[in-house]
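R.M. (postdoc): so does anyone remember the format we settled on? I'll just put the structure tokens first.
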């Protein structure tokens, strides 16, 4: 049953920010406009004072500006990175959390290595995720994240690698906030691997394990060149096949279709494997829950989707 209008995502987001550097964000901007989101692109200006900063710290600085703005309003802020590819009709999808939840920290719309902690009687799931590709943040949660960023500035500092996005859930929970994960992902991480992650023992890439539906446009990784950073432009790219709706135009070549299908099939298989291995719903959480089979139903239902 579709959600009531006042419980859809687009009706409960007060402001939206696209975090970008020099990426082409036109397809994402077009999709957000069509879905009813009033957005602003926040591009981190290049500065000689930031030479030598780690990529992870530069990413943190990008999000900090959005957190500052999120802390100044009374409502929810949607923050997406430039390589986020929404599913079609994202704006009409149900909220992953009650919009006025008093202790909300972060509600992820895109998850990576997520875990399920609990499910409310209304069906909202609390849990863990890493990666900040797409998420909702409440004002008080944004303030807590800004405080975290200030601490990271002191230690380990701007030049050191920090997996800060992996610590957000823990830091917010320590301060009494509660964080939510969606039933399925509202979009895909369409970008290139971050070599800094691999150098520190993390996976090269991460993709959505299960999507709410077809993507609104083709992710960059489906292109033969896999080029994420086309020159940014404010002009519509009306003739670029990438900017056309994903389901309404064929791939230019069979190789592009194969590249996309291969990535998505691997992501789906990995998600199902995590469920079966007890990594999404851990045995300890299951056995200690007062409603263990509610958690199990949520975990299984999450993967029961025909969407690749």
């Amino acid at each position: 049953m579709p959600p009531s209008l006042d419980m859809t995502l687009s009706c409960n987001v007060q402001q939206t920010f696209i975090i970008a550097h020099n990426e082409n964000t036109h397809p994402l901007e077009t999709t957000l406009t069509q879905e009813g989101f009033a957005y602003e692109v926040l591009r981190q200006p290049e500065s000689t004072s930031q030479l030598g900063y780690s990529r992870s710290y530069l990413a943190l600085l990008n999000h900090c500006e959005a957190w500052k703005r999120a802390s100044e309003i009374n409502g929810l802020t949607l923050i997406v990175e430039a390589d986020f590819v929404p599913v079609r009709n994202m704006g009409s999808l149900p909220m992953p959390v009650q919009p006025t939840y008093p202790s909300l920290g972060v509600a992820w719309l895109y998850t990576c290595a997520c875990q399920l902690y609990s499910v409310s009687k209304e069906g909202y799931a609390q849990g863990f995720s890493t990666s900040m590709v797409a998420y909702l943040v409440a004002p008080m949660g944004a303030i807590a994240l800004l405080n975290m960023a200030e601490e990271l500035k002191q230690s380990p500092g701007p030049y050191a690698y920090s997996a800060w996005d992996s610590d957000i859930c823990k830091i917010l929970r320590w301060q009494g906030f509660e964080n939510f994960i969606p039933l399925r992902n509202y979009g895909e991480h369409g970008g290139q691997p971050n070599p800094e992650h691999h150098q520190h023992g993390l996976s090269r890439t991460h993709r959505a394990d299960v999507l709410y539906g077809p993507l609104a446009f083709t992710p960059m990784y489906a292109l033969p060149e896999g080029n994420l950073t086309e020159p940014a432009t404010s002009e519509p790219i009306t003739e670029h096949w990438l900017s056309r709706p994903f389901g309404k135009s064929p791939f230019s070549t069979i190789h592009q279709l194969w590249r996309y299908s291969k990535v998505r099939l691997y992501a789906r298989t990995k998600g199902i494997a995590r469920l079966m291995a007890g990594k999404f719903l851990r045995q300890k959480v299951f056995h200690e829950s007062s409603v263990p089979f509610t958690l199990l139903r949520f975990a299984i239902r999450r993967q029961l989707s025909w969407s690749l």
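R.M.: ...and that's the designed sequence above, right after the tokens. Also worth knowing: The two ends are 22 Å apart (CA to CA). Strands lie at 13-20, 39-43, 76-81, 84-86, 104-108, 112-119, 125-130, 134-137, 178-181, 187-189.
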